[in-house]
Each structure stands twice: as C-alpha cells, then as structure tokens.
Design brief:
alpha+beta, Pseudouridine synthase, two-stranded antiparallel sheet, elongated
Amino acid sequence: MNRPAPLPDGFLLVDKPAGITSFRVVDRVKKRFRIAKLGHGGSLDPPATGLLVLLVNRATKRAGMLLGGEKEYRATVRLGVETDTQDAAGRVLKRNEGFVVRRPEVEQALERFRGEILQTPPMVSALKHRGERLYRIARRGEEVERPPRKVTISRLVLTGFSADRLDLLVCCSKGTYIRTLAHDLGRVLGPGGCLEKLRRTAVGPFRVEDAAPLDRILEGTRESLAAGIIPLGGGMEANSKTPDS
C-alpha cells in the first residue's frame, strides 16, 4: 500500500456542528485522513457551534498562540431559567415567570461586564480541584470553592432583545466562560439566566466564514483537505498577538 502524501503543516478551519465534542471532531478527521499529529486551538462545548481551529502536524506547537488569543462569540441568553451547568443542556434549578426586563436595564447591566472582570468558573467544567476535574466532582452532587479569575471582555454588544431572550456579541480573552457570563448577567438583571445558544465566530485572526462544515471535510479527499489547510507562515504570526497561554 502506498503511503499517503504528507499534509502541509498548518491550520484547518472547521465549522463545528452541535452535539459533538471538540475531541471527537479531531478524532474523526485524524482517523479519516490518517494524520500523524492533529490537535485544536481551543475547545467548544458539545452544544456550541462555530469555529474550531485544527492544528495539523507542526502547527500543533502553535496551540498556545490560539488558546491565549482573543475569541469572538454570538450568544443567546435565556432569562428566567437557571441550570446546574449554566446552559440550556443542564438540569433546571430555578424558574422565574412574570418578570419584566427593559432594554435600558440590560444596557446598564452589560456595562458591569465590560473590560477586566472577575469570573468564578462553573462547577461543570474541565478545570481541576486537587487533581480532579470539576465536572466529575459535580456529577457526585458536590460543590467546591473556585477562586475567581481575571478575564477581559473587550467587546459586549446587545444585538437582539425580547421579553426573555438577549442576543449578544462577545469578544473576550482566554478563560472566559460565556455560560457564566449568561448566568451572572441573569442574576444582575433579577430573573436569572442561562446560555441558550452559542456560536464561535472568530479565534485570533481566523473567522468562521472561512471554515468548512465538518461533514463536507469528512466527505472530501485528502487532496481537498490539503488545499484547505492554511500553511504556517501564511500571515497568522503577523496578524495575531501571542499572549502567554
């Protein structure tokens, strides 16, 4: 059997569908095209969609550059519902009905979340407490103290408003939980809230408009995959910042 031609070192932009983990996306592409080294530059939760940057071969060494860079999201917050995961996939802990939230109140509340803020990570997350993942502790019904972390939200815009839903554009730093932003915003407004939908639209210099759907990538050939890889040195280093990861 002939050995397949090596793929270029670089970045493959995938538009991740909902209902699949980022690890599973990497695994499917890696096995389908027999790629020796393949990683990603920042995971998305299974319910989320949007830009997942895959790192091919030597580009895996650039993971820190993407993980540490700014990311952009489109988010929908549902008001009046709080869950144990801070998103719509979780178990409902509290419901509020009959509340009234006005647009000026939302605009005023958003101001509290712009710039550098302190954010307490959710229990259902991959962070570790004494060597154990928080989500494993949460599955046992336990909760532990999580120290707040500094994150930066450089842009936060209300793009849509209704009685119980808010659409947001969020540009933020590494380590920002959009689920927690939704939860905290709901608390500030009064009725509580959770993240209903999330779509990542940019990672560093890369945008989702330039990404291909996962199914199309998997249905393609090795040649079409190679043609879609953005090579190292293709302008990324010049157009992106490299903060500590």
